[in-house]
Design brief:
Order of helices and strands: EHHEHEHEEEEEEEHHHEEHEEH
Radius of gyration: 21 Å
Number of domains: 2
Structural class: alpha/beta
Bound molecules: pyridoxal-5'-phosphate
Distance between the termini: 36 Å
Shape: globular
Strand content: 5-15%
CATH superfamily of the largest domain: Type I PLP-dependent aspartate aminotransferase-like (Major domain)
Largest sheet: 7 strands, mixed
CATH class of the largest domain: Alpha Beta
Strand order of the largest sheet: 2-10-9-8-5-3-4
Number of strands: 14
Length: 360
């Protein structure tokens, strides 16, 4: 069965091997004669899967013992709310705005306090990541929040600000596990799984344990990070199938040389598309400035809205999935997360070249 050239922004392509494993095990997981979805979340068979997913994350990301790995629900969007519910001290967290998702995180914090905006590239239509020198970070920020990859605009932080006195928190929903990561530089990393890690339904949080002491007593139980930490993310029923798929995806990453392997693979894929844009004499115009280009979401426009539409229509006819830009910005976007193959990117490059030849 051939697989689609899937450039969806999320939920997105998953590794065929991870899906095949689920297919093989669907009716009989590990000799239980049951599907993973039918197991009790308190059973040994499920707990083995749960703990393996945690230990693979710990191993692949080299998570230090100072941090917990949590499985939460509610997507990255619930994290936008949980951060200010858990970690305000003076009342002023600091949000660096690099796109729509960082704006949404800020809006959620505004419901509880008066956050500060310590940097923004909104005035240049989020075409780039700010330089460190442009950031206004101070010692008494409750925390500093960044978005490591801007799914909609196609920009990505290449290195991360050194924040000494305040916790550094990052939404990594659309590029976690795409490259090696200095986890220790962060106090909290979170990511919805459905871009790079697995199906929707589970959200990963990697939390420095020393943050728990900040959590106010009146925080609702399920909204407290330490509730989940104390119970190994089994305080209540976790999204068991999503965690099982996450485990399969992590095994695939491990087999494919871990995060170094992913980074190499992703750079090769992204270069194919960016080179095609750069060699197109301005026919394909990237949204992101070169130094801020994302290896995960490649955003571009053709010379007119008409050509954008014709390009997308032709792509659809050729079986390419998900190339429209986000409804808020338009244009075209190829999301090339870990599981998207080099072959899919080559096929897209070939289509881009042919389309340009036929339409200039
Ligand atoms: C997709 C995405 C979100 C929203 O995730 P949900 O799981 O739908 O809440 C948040 N931040 C970033 C960077 C994203 O890419």
């Amino acid at each position: 069965m051939p697989r689609a050239h899937n450039f969806n922004a999320g939920p997105a392509a998953l590794p065929t091997e991870a899906l095949q494993q689920a297919n093989d095990e669907l009716l009989n997981l590990n000799g239980t004669s049951m599907s993973v979805m039918e197991l009790s979340h308190r059973s040994d068979d499920y707990e083995a899967i749960h703990n393996e997913a945690i230990s693979l994350l710990k191993e692949l990301l080299a998570v230090p013992d100072s941090h917990d790995i949590l499985f939460l629900q509610g997507g990255a969007s619930l994290q936008f709310a949980m951060l200010p519910m858990n970690f305000l001290t003076n009342g002023q967290p600091n949000y660096i705005l690099t796109g729509s998702w960082s704006e949404k995180a800020l809006e959620e914090a505004k419901l509880l306090t008066s956050p500060k905006v310590g940097g923004s590239t909104k005035e240049v239509d989020y075409r780039r990541i700010p330089n460190f020198s442009e950031l206004n970070i101070s010692d008494d920020d409750d925390y500093v929040h960044i978005t490591s990859n801007n799914t909609i605009y196609g920009t990505q932080w290449k290195s991360f600000p050194e924040v000494i006195h305040s916790p550094l928190i990052a939404d990594m929903s659309s590029d976690i596990m795409s490259r090696p990561l200095p986890v220790d530089q962060f106090d909290l990393i979170y990511a919805g799984a459905q871009k790079n890690l697995g199906p929707s339904g589970v959200t990963i949080a990697i939390v420095r344990k020393s943050l728990y002491e900040r959590i106010p007593d009146n925080t609702p139980t399920l909204m407290r990070y330490d509730t989940h930490a104390k119970k190994n993310s089994l305080y209540h029923t976790p999204p068991t199938f999503s965690i099982y798929m996450l485990k399969n995806v992590l095994q695939w990453i491990k087999t494919n040389k871990g995060l170094e392997g992913m980074e190499k693979r992703n750079q090769a894929k992204a270069s194919l598309l960016y080179e095609t844009m750069d060699e197109s004499d301005g026919f394909y115009k990237g949204h992101a400035e070169k130094e801020s280009r994302s290896t995960m979401n490649v955003t571009f426009n053709l010379p007119s809205e008409e050509l954008n539409k014709a390009f997308l229509r032709g792509a659809e006819e050729k079986g390419f999935i998900g190339l429209n830009g986000h409804r808020s910005v338009g244009g075209c976007r190829a999301s090339i997360y870990n599981a998207v193959t080099l072959e899919s990117c080559e096929a897209l490059r070939d289509y881009m070249k042919t389309f340009q030849k036929n339409n200039r």
